[in-house]
């Protein structure tokens, strides 16, 4: 694995989807519809073994610092089932959005796709600021689990916490890689890797908490640009701010970026983007394809995601299911 790069993560108001201001088979990548061929890669199993859209805030001053104790975060919550009118909207490939069913992603304290995480960035003067983004895909090696999220969500060394209502934030890891240039948000990379503390490996939930008519979606691997352009699938995004949103594939705009129709907002940055296998009538088999990166203030239904394939191949990572 080549050395992890370091790059300053910045933020641009009104362009990025999050800013700090004071929505099952062993791995290989996807390129053939319905099969793990060119462009599609399988998944492995995780187990034992933007700065966000939030006002700047100091560390607690009441004598209670964010917890670094090994207390386990809570396990994943209730599954959200897409059925009835929701299923009809998905089946007809309309733009779909539901936030009410995913409100717990904000304060669940869970290590799962789309859930909120908080970053603490020290500015070198003894103070710092909090930020919030959404967890992306859980990836890694035989010995380490990372979360692949948006690079503009944090700088290398930024501490990462999860938060449950009524409890202190719990430290779960830190940014070890950030590759982002705000001047090239639509054309360049926007990737971050959070190294998860090993004591929390058993708490990681890898599949999005979404079901299609009582069938939980299952990650079959990850797909690259060639698979997406060949299959032009229906796609979904999950983040703590606006929940689940889905729509049709639009285009691959450059080596890093895919656009598709959906609705997003600040705080959803870094969250997972997946594509349904067009040859799967059950609609439960999905491919991890990107992380949420930016939106346009001129077209709220057009969102840019950063393809995960470049990071997966550069660092020889597996996407966990």
What would you note in describing this structure?
This protein has helices at 85-91, 225-231, 309-314; strands at 29-32, 35-41, 43-44, 80-82, 96-98, 116-122, 128-134, 137-140, 145-149, 159-162, 170-180, 190-196, 210-212, 215-216, 218-223, 234-239, 243-252, 257-261, 272-276, 285-296, 299-307, 318-320. It has 321 residues and is mainly beta. The protein has a single domain (29-57, 72-320), classed as Thrombin, subunit H, CATH 2.40.10.120. The strands form three sheets. Strands 3-22-8-9-12-11-10-6-7 form a nine-stranded mixed β-sheet, with no helix packed on it. A six-stranded antiparallel barrel has the order 16-17-18-21-20-19. The protein starts with 28 loop residues before the first strand and ends with a strand. The relative contact order is 0.24. Mean pLDDT is 76; it is low at 1-29, 31-37 and 48-76. This is Serine protease. Residues 1-24 form the signal peptide. Keywords: Signal. Residues 28-79 are annotated as: Disordered. Residues 34-50 have a biased composition (Gly residues).
């Amino acid at each position: 694995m080549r050395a992890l790069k370091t790059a300053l993560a910045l933020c641009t108001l009104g362009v990025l989807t999050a800013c700090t201001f004071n929505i099952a088979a062993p791995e290989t990548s996807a390129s053939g519809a319905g099969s793990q061929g060119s462009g599609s890669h399988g998944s492995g199993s995780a187990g034992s073994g933007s700065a966000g859209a939030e006002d700047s805030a100091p560390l607690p001053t009441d004598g209670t610092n964010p917890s670094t104790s090994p207390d386990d975060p809570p396990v994943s919550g209730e599954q959200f089932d897409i059925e009835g009118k929701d299923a009809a909207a998905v089946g007809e490939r309309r733009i779909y959005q539901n936030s009410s069913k995913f409100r717990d992603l904000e304060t669940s304290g869970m290590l799962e796709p789309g859930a909120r995480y908080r970053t603490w960035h020290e500015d070198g003067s003894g103070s710092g600021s909090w930020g919030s983004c959404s967890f992306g895909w859980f990836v890694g090696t035989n010995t380490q689990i990372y979360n692949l999220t948006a690079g503009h969500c944090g700088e290398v060394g930024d501490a990462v916490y999860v938060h449950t209502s009524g409890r202190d934030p719990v430290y779960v890891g830190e940014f070890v890689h950030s590759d982002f240039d705000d001047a090239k948000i639509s054309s360049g990379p926007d990737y971050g890797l959070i190294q998860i503390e090993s004591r929390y490996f058993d708490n990681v939930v890898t599949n999005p908490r979404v079901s299609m008519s009582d069938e939980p979606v299952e990650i079959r691997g990850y797909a690259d640009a060639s698979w997406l352009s060949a299959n032009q699938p229906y796609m979904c995004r999950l983040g703590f701010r606006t929940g689940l949103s889905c729509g049709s594939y639009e285009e691959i705009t450059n080596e890093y970026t895919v656009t598709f129709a959906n609705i997003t907002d600040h705080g959803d940055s870094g969250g997972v983007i997946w594509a349904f296998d067009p040859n799967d009538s059950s609609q439960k088999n999905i491919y991890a394809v990107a992380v949420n990166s930016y939106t346009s203030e001129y077209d709220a239904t057009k969102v840019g995601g950063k393809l995960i394939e470049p990071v997966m191949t550069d660092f020889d990572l597996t996407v966990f299911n």
